[in-house]
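User: For this week's homework, look closely at the record that follows, marking any run of repeated tokens, and judge whether sequence predicts the tokens.
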Amino acid sequence: MVEVVTDYRGDAFRSVYTVQFADGVYVLHVFQKKSKTGRTTLRGDLDLVRLRLKEAERMAKEMKP
């Protein structure tokens, strides 16, 4: 997984996604980081990314000929 962090007008936005599948890029989760301190991602966000990654893996397998 790769995490992209960008700032827009003083707010931080994060996009967590994977590019390991041949059929395309799956965007797993995008959110605005609200905490002004610390760099950690909330556990709930990480759990959601893991769940969606499993679903993307399942979908990618189904799409193979």
Q: What stands out?
A: Strands lie at 2-8, 11-18, 26-33. The chain has one domain: 2-63. Residues 2-63 form one domain. The chain has a mean pLDDT of 76.
